[in-house]
Automatic annotation (TrEMBL):
Family from the record: Belongs to the LysR transcriptional regulatory family.
Record carries keyword Transcription regulation: yes
Transmembrane residue ranges: none
Organism of provenance: Vibrio sinensis
Name of this protein: LysR family transcriptional regulator
InterPro entries membership: LysR-type_TF_proteobact-type, LysR_HTH_N, LysR_subst-bd, WH-like_DNA-bd_sf, WH_DNA-bd_sf
Amino acid sequence: MRADDLILFSQVFELGSFSKVAEKNNITNSVVSKRIARLEQDAGVQLLYRTTRKLALTEAGRALLQGAKNVRQATQEARDTVSGFGNKLSGHIKMSVPTISGDLLLAEAIAEFCCLHPGLTVDMSLENRFVDLVEEGYDLVIRTGYLEDSSLIARHMLDSQWVVCASPQYVQREGMPEYPKALTTHNCLQYAYQTTGASDWEFKGTTKNSIVRVSGSFSTDNAAALRKAALAGYGIAYVPRCLVYHDLKDGLLLDLFPDRVGKKLGVYAVYPFTRQPPKKVKMLIEHIKQRYQEMAHYFA
């Protein structure tokens, strides 16, 4: 297989059409088609499904994609080195981040990173689902929770402490729960985006942590909606401290069980396993980690 055909194949996946790849490389659509056909002939299998509306990878195409990306990355790094532009970042990064981190600090941090490196573009999706990095073509994701996929590399950013909180109005109306099990008699607002069940609230014990199974009238996978419901006095919420940091500080929400909540999750930068991640991804991870550390008091 020719390295330039592999690079072209990775571009087809990234851009989604022959015409966009042709425009990017200043060649014709027919040349792109012939080179992909040559790559398929060399591989001995079909790599792409072609329809009038879209392109899709075959199973063999998905298997080949990471290798093609590695060739493209190695070629770019070699080109940068010999051209004397080893410190200049260029290209594109596709990433996914949780809504809380995105709203709190990452949107601004990543926009800043792009301004620092004018040749670089970043496509950042704010979503709570665990995306498939390889299948969906992500270069980097920020995840909160536990990493089980051994085909991915994770870089720890910091730990995120959770809190149980409610508005002063709710506590005045319904009373202050004196101990965690008392939460079973309260309206508990549930955050559906969790690695554990939304109704399983974890608390510290003398020998080990315990779970209190709560219930309530409202649940959501949107952190901003949960915060608004708690601020309005509709119930008790179990959320990351960073989400309600200013509300707690300003007295708009009360921390009901200081130092007793057992849930603390790591925040990780995760990327597909490669021998050497692209310099642009490594530098973006360092930039993100620095921003997290500057706001570590929001998460502690």
